[in-house]
């Protein structure tokens, strides 16, 4: 019989709106002695059943909801159905983009809190980041083996959030190792090399897929500066669409080497693309001193905001790079600027960019917005699922 979590009076409202989190301060009492990750029943102050979820005694998010249906058992069939339904929701987008790399499970947005599952060609990469996900790992992996019998499975549960759940990082193959950790995926006719062992996140930034397409649509005949370029996939789209020149800037030799290989695998080894190993903040200032300008600048920085306490400092960082980038643009130039920080909401990000334009003495017109790709959905009852924001600005 499941342990029971009783909520303080009035704290059931978010659950009635199907939000999947119960915070520690919402808990009134616990009946039973649930272990970390075990499934518990969640009841309101009067004892009315609300949901079932995974208990996490060390996290501020004390319970993450698996189901709002009292008749639903949290068993193997439950997870098998979640995986099958997630794939069905994505089938149209996978076929439309001819994708061989995509996100199958996006945590709470796919009703699987703490679970991220990405597919790269014939390798599945899992991140099991919550106590509940870790507790159910054998069932989840077993379901993946049934649905994708010829695929290799690799775990990248190496994210800091596991510490908040009282979990140690875990990395390694959950099947026999693949012949190589590097695979080639396809998106909208472009090939991309991905190393699931050493690449960022689960191996690659799948969430920027639509933004890469957008960048290509603006790039023809333009001089492009691609900042925080990582493995250069924005540059590949720009070069494939006739950019006059592209400059990739990153601090990692490994990333820039892979950026060149990404050009080569697409037959673009002779495209006018250069790779510069440099800190973006320093290089932008150097270019400003030199009077160097571009027709298009892409700013896709890493996450600047890890906590609410860091928000003010992060806004200063975003404002700084956007201001200098605008000063480096030729009149009518295109700035594509992004934030992947979930704690920085879209309105605040737009304000930061607007303030940057004022300080740069420029006029910025927002002509397009981008967000995370279709396989990273935002559930209507889980607005926190919206984290990746992009603005395309024409600057004069």
TrEMBL record:
One of its GO terms (biological process) is methylation. GO terms for molecular function: methyltransferase activity. Keywords: Cytoplasm, Methyltransferase, RNA-binding, rRNA processing, S-adenosyl-L-methionine, Transferase. The keyword rRNA processing applies. Pfam families: Methyltrans_SAM, PUA_3. Residues 3-88 form the PUA domain. It is found in: Cytoplasm. Signal peptide: none annotated. Its main location: cytoplasm. PROSITE patterns: PUA. PANTHER family: RIBOSOMAL RNA LARGE SUBUNIT METHYLTRANSFERASE, S-ADENOSYLMETHIONINE-DEPENDENT METHYLTRANSFERASE DOMAIN-CONTAINING PROTEIN. Belongs to the methyltransferase superfamily. RlmI family. This is Ribosomal RNA large subunit methyltransferase I. The gene is rlmI.
């Amino acid at each position: 019989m499941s342990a029971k979590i009783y909520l303080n009076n009035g704290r059931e409202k978010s659950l009635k709106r199907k939000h999947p989190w119960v915070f520690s301060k919402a808990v009134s009492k616990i009946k039973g002695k649930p272990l970390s990750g075990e499934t518990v029943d969640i009841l309101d102050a009067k004892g009315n059943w609300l949901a079932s979820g995974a208990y996490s005694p060390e996290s501020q998010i004390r319970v993450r909801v698996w189901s709002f249906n009292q008749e639903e058992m949290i068993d193997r069939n439950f997870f098998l159905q979640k995986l099958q339904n997630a794939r069905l929701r994505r089938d149209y987008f996978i076929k439309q983009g001819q994708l061989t790399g995509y996100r199958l499970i996006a945590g709470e947005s796919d009703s699987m809190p703490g679970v991220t599952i990405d597919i790269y060609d014939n390798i599945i990469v899992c991140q099991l980041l919550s106590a509940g996900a870790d507790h159910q790992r054998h069932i989840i992996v077993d379901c993946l083996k049934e649905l994708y019998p010829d695929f290799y499975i690799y775990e990248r549960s190496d994210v800091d959030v596991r510490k908040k759940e009282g979990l140690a990082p875990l990395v390694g193959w959950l099947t026999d190792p693949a012949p190589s950790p590097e695979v080639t995926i396809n998106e909208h006719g472009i090939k991309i090399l991905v190393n699931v062992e050493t690449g960022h996140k689960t191996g690659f930034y799948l969430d920027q897929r639509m933004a890469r397409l957008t960048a290509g649509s603006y790039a023809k005949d333009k001089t492009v500066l691609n900042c925080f370029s990582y493995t250069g996939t924005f540059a590949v789209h720009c070069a494939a669409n006739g950019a006059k020149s592209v400059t990739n800037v990153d601090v990692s030799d490994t990333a820039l080497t892979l950026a060149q290989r990404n050009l080569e695998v697409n037959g673009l080894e002779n495209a006018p693309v250069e790779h510069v190993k440099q800190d973006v903040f320093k290089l932008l200032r150097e270019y400003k001193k030199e009077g160097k300008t571009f027709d298009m600048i892409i700013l896709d920085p890493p996450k600047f905001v890890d906590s609410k306490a860091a928000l003010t400092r992060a806004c200063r960082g975003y404002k700084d790079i956007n201001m200098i980038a605008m000063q480096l643009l030729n009149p009518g130039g295109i700035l594509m600027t992004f934030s992947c920080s979930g704690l920085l909401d879209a309105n605040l990000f737009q304000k930061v960019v607007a303030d940057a334009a004022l300080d740069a003495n420029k006029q910025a017109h927002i002509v397009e917005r981008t967000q995370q790709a279709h396989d990273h959905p935002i559930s209507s009852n889980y607005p926190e699922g919206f984290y990746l924001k992009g603005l395309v600005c024409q600057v004069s």
